[in-house]
Amino acid sequence: MCGIVGYIGERDIKKFLLEGLKELEYRGYDSAGIAILQEGKLLIFKAVGKLENLIQKAKDLKTEGFGVGIGHTRWATHGKPTELNAHPQMGEFSYVVHNGIIENFKEIKSFLKEKQFLSQTDTEVIVHLFEKNLEELGNPKEAFKRTVKTLKGAYAILLITKADPNSIYFAKKGSPLIVGRDKDEVFFSSSDSPLIGYAKEVYYLEDGEWGVASKGKIEIFEGSKRVEREFKPLTINKELAQKGGYRFFMEKEIYEQSDVIIDTMMGRVKEDRIELEELDKEFLEGVENIKICACGTSYNAGLTGAYLIEKLAKIPANAEIASEFRYKEPVLLNNTLFIVISQSGETADTLEALKMAKSEGLKTLAICNVDNSSIVRLADRTILTRAGIEKGVASTKAFTTQVMVLWMLALYLAQENLKKELKENELKAMTKTPLALKVSTSLHERIKRLSKRYLHGHGFFFIGRDIFYPLALEGALKLKEISYLHAEGYPAGEMKHGPIALADPELFTIALMPKNLLYEKIKSNVEELSARDSTICAISPVEFELADDFIKVNNATHYMLEYYEMAVVMQLLAMEIAIRLGNDVDMPRNLAKSVTVE
Fold it and tell me: Where do you find CATH 3.60.20.10 in the chain?
């Protein structure tokens, strides 16, 4: 998501910060800013939109001689993309940049009611809390330690203050932050690439670590205990650094899912309930059915959401393909909540469907990854997925975060009427999702080896039942998009009504067989295909003796944990097949990331 850079030293501070932010543009952002503390003067420049706007604003700034500086590219989560909401956020004599989400920012803001807040961000509480602690303790290091201890949520923080004008204070929990050095210079970034050519060696901060850096000196702490950390040489390949060492952006984004899903849930999944500050009872009053409209991968997420809403909230819900919905002369009832889903927020068919719903007076909700996009601006309400930029054209983390938002929405709609035990079970499963999305080395290696068996043949069937049917659709779509092999997703129980006629050894069946949902039913369907000599690849926590290939997923207590792990398996399988076929995984032919035409 957002990008962070920082610098202590005597080179051109502005140049380093702006060049560093340029290297982080691939992460996605909607505003940017820098703050520089030099010779006792604090200077700040912020701009909405592309980095070029910030460069123009700061074009007359000269930064020669020793100083400290911090920079940030922001992807909006709290508050719209405006200059006031852009980072750095300011106090009376300090500035802060921050990635992540401060879960308890409302409580802190209430505690700091005598302070004047200028932005809508959760970040601003950090700098005001630091200055209040400094007033009480009189020591910047102790004030920062107390500040970090108070924060709940995820954060990577850099803070500069006139109270200690030659230092940068830093902290990390849940969001990446790197500290680098070369002789007396100190560098910070949320990714390797801005540091290449500057820092000779780096340390990747661990969660819970914080510290203070000054000229030639870096102190790192765990709680109150100072710790010594080993700095390692930095890679010199910028493209590799952007990809984090992965072969493709798609591979990187598959591995990122475990982390970004935490951002999606942050501040929303509580110990005893779901809180969606974007919604309220008044907005949902009178809603008796739900229609979900989307395209491609977002449609598959929407279909999953329709299953979840009916299962949990017992509200009639259905998903429609936006390009079809527009021309079917749909009957729209005024008691309908109309939900649109789009990664980019610019998908033309989905945007037009939203306009139709608005013209009929329906309440509208957008699930989107890009704040201030066309769909977000038009919808009555928006829940952001917070997935960060997705460079691979074939969607991965956008899909899994969309499904999480729909799962949270389903539970939000259900929680007042759901039995306590059932609600606790859903919440507990949600908190385990990051583990379900974590890619193990052994799993990836197994899929890599298996992939060589699936390069030829006359097609693939991806089959599943219930909520695993839309997941089968998504698995087939991933394979089609990047391998150019023919693949279809089917409800497993529907195979006997026609498609089973195609079964033979050259028809590959990818069977989603969760233990926690209709296992015996799907097992029976797969046995029918096996009896017709179809080649079976079973994905399940339960060994299946008729499978030609078996990919074992972890035993789980909830079907959604199986759903998420199987999603990762299919993403990896599609990617490894495509790589073996020599395809460009990140830029498949004929496809675009944001489909802005009919």
Answer: 3-242
Q: What is the pLDDT of residue 49?
A: 85
- The shares of helix, strand and coil residues in the chain, as percent rounded to the nearest 5, are 40, 25, 35
Annotation says 593 is catalytic: yes
Angle at alpha carbon of residue 342, lines to 272 and 241, rounded to 5°: 90
Q: Which ranges constitute the DSSP H helices of 267-325?
A: 281-284, 296-312, 322-325
Q: Give me the sign of the Cα torsion angle 264, 469, 356, 280.
A: negative
Taking CA atoms, 529 is separated from 76, 507, 521, 525, 547, in Å, by 48, 10, 13, 7, 11
For 246-426, give the CATH class. alpha beta
Consecutive H or E run containing 105: helix 105-111
Q: Which of 2, 295, 368, 537 is catalytic?
A: 2
Better pLDDT: 526 or 538: 538
CATH code 3.40.50.10490 region(s) in the chain = 246-426, 439-598
Task: Write the pLDDT tens digit of every residue in 383-425.
Answer: 999 888 788 889 999 999 999 999 999 999 999 999 999 999 9
- The residue with greater pLDDT, 158 or 544, is 158
- Write down the CATH number for the domain with range 3-242: 3.60.20.10
pLDDT at 597 exceeding the cut of 70: no
For the domain spanning 439-598, the CATH number is: 3.40.50.10490
pLDDT of residue 598: 56
Catalytic residue of the set 115, 162, 432, 593: 593
